[in-house]
Design brief:
Length: 231
């Protein structure tokens, strides 16, 4: 009986949300998207897909991001298409970011293409972050290349991602940022070294723990504690 009640209660809600997503009023569509957060992925994704190509940029951005959070098997090909064909670079960046949440290693190849071929640094930044989330060693060469970018935020993303990938070959490459003028880059370095257990990492962390910026010092100490506790 309770299952029957649950079904009857939910069906009108889903129907109402679907109607809102078809509304000509963009505020209705936005409100409907927000209301999807309480639904299961199987319920939410077909509704999200109704507005994935919406004319309103904010709605499209929100829908793309939602596909990363409420993912099913249907999400990967949609996000891959958007990443490859979307004209707006902000939406492409959203798609690249959402792909990192899928935990689907099919995403590595389109993310690598975006990293190498996209001309917008924000898309490359999102791709680097997602490659780190996926932790696939195939991203190693691209992330090492990102360390030579003129964009500081791309350095930060690449350093963090290399830590997630966990390939110790990167340690020598990322240690050049130990004296970066940017404290957030130094913090990302300390955090990454916490995933890269070797003598050079420990030595660098002992240096970073004396950093003048408290967040860098704290991150280094946390990383040291994590590495020493696993020995």
């Amino acid at each position: 009986m309770s299952l029957s009640n649950k079904t009857s209660n939910q069906s009108p809600d889903l129907s109402n949300i679907a109607q809102q997503l078809d509304s000509e009023n963009s505020r209705d569509r936005l409100r409907a998207l927000v209301s999807l957060r309480d639904l299961s992925p199987d319920e939410a994704v077909p509704l999200i897909l109704k507005v994935i190509d919406d004319e309103n940029l904010q709605i499209r951005s929100m829908a793309v991001f939602a596909l990363g959070l409420k993912h099913t098997e249907d999400c990967f090909p949609v996000l891959a298409r958007i990443l490859e064909t979307e004209n707006d670079y902000g939406i492409r960046a959203d798609a690249a970011g959402a792909m990192g949440y899928l935990q689907d290693n099919r995403a590595v190849e389109p993310l690598l293409r975006a990293f190498y071929e996209d001309t917008e640094w924000l898309v490359r930044f999102s791709a680097a972050v997602s490659l780190g989330n996926l932790g696939d060693v195939r991203a190693y060469d691209a992330l090492i290349q990102a360390l030579d970018s003129p964009e500081t935020m791309l350095h930060q993303a690449a350093i963090a991602a290399l830590g997630e990938v966990g390939d110790l070959r990167c340690v020598d490459q990322i240690l050049r940022f130990a004296q970066s003028d940017d404290w957030l880059t130094r913090q990302r370095l300390a955090e990454a070294l916490g995933h890269l257990n070797c003598d050079k990492s420990i030595s660098a962390l002992n240096y970073l723990v004396k950093d003048a910026h408290p967040q860098v010092s704290a991150a280094a100490q946390y990383a040291i504690n994590g590495l020493t506790s696993t020995k």
